[in-house]
Amino acid sequence: MASFNQQFLYSIIIISLGYLLKRTNFIKERDGEGLSRIIFNLTLPALIIVSFHDVTLDASLILLVVIGLVYGLIMGAVGIFIFRKQEQKTKGMLTMMVPGFNIGLFAYPLVEGIWGSKGIQYFGMFDMGNAFIVFGLIYVIGAYYSDSSTPLNIRTITRQMTQSLPFMTFIVTIFISLASIPLPKALVETANIISVANMPLSLLLLGIYLNFTFERGYLKLIMQYMAVRYLTGIVVGLALFILLPFNNMFKYTVLIGLILPSSMSALPYAVEFNYDRRFVGTVTNMTIIISFLLMWLIANFVI
């Protein structure tokens, strides 16, 4: 228990440091764009290579991919139903934020600190299913309800997914592992050195991006959104935790996975489809705080 709380304490300190550096103008929020590119294109792929180059897939790991995908599809339908009476652009903005999770920036640094590479393997498989939602379904929903001229077809969606270096690293690394092709030792060791930076950089970036300004008229919509996202996640997560006959790491992954924050991809999509980017950014940040508290409660009272 002490190790869990210690990891959360360190995470709070690093996130707070990132926020403080932004508030004191040592770092600008726009600097986070460069840092995010380093994380998504270098440190996160390196962490994936280290965690998955020798993974052995079993039924529970494959099921995590299915859960991440199917749950996202269901939540997309739930969002469309719940917000069906909203004005079209508001409906699109809210609905695209319901499915999908922020695993790369939020979950990986905490999971790595608590469970190490084994935790990354489990959450990574869940993230693989989630990736189809983040780069596929969310993009489709955002484009469909917007007034954007962006073409909505298989080619566009496929391009979105293949442009994600972490996702493609997942696919290639797991394929190589299943084919029993050993990666060069120098590559794995170099990736291991680089991957060490993923946790502190990700937590710093979360702090840099923290922002809590929004119009009061949006408060009711925010509360409705939070209720849909977290009540569903908690209920389904607890049900799967109790009913599925797999090991504890699998159960922790499902329980925590379904209450993770909104996907950060919603923000660039909001820019592309001309939604209210301040609202999307604020709600995404609020889910980070809520998920962090829920994860701490689970770590102390369930795990």
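^ that was protein a. below is b, sequence first then the tokens
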Amino acid sequence: MPRTVTVGLDGSRESMAAVGWAAREALARGLPLRLVHVWDLAPDVHTPLIGPDTRRHWAERTPRKAAEWVSRHHPGLEVGTVQKCGEPAKALCEAAEEAELLVLGSRGLGAITGFVVGSVSLAVVARTGRPVVLVRSRDLQVPATKPPADDGDVVLGLDISHPCEKLLEFAFAHAHRHGAGLRVVHSWNFPLAWGPDAAAAAALLEGQVQAAKADALAAVLLPWRHEFPEVQVTEDCRLGRPAHDLPAAAHDARLVVVGRRSRTSSIGAHTGTVTHSVLHHCAAPVAVVPRD
């Protein structure tokens, strides 16, 4: 089966924003776009008076209208629609396995200035073995014909103690594909220390550790700089907390790229502290790449 850029579609403003982002990405990758609409036969507790026939009508109408929009705005893009009936997270994970990239909508910024990540999106991010991009709606025009930040850098959060080739390749390739710069952020901190001399000792060591960390980051990135010489790379190695520093560094990014450790357990979200923070506090689209 040919690879695609696939969008999970439910007709909401957020999923339609994801359609716009995914259409541009499919064109950049030279891949067809696949719109997947999942609907559940179980009664909807929020709209109990809507019968199954009406729900089926909207289930058929939603992907058709989205495909018509894509065809009007991107006439050269091959677009197909698929309808699935079943549990949404499971169906979207299955769709992701047939895709090069899965794109989902997020409900936007909440009252605490953070992403309101829906349970379905979070479950898919945690379970699938494919990269997933979460896109929130921030324009009145949806789908937006232009990227939310078309002049920003790609921002990559990197743990140099466990560098992942899939993560690095995704970030460098995306930056190269879109002619963007790449900002690589690595935050590190000292282990907790106690005693009256702990702060003084940490201050003495900070410069040495910073130099060693910066050298290690440069060594990890060197082969990727050679493979993608056109990409302008900025190395940001700092003393701090990754879960705080990465969202702060990505406020004007076009895309934020983070990793997620692959786990076999079906219990819990398993996104990790840093990825969880980015998903809930970054306004830019966020790509989550599973790693071993």
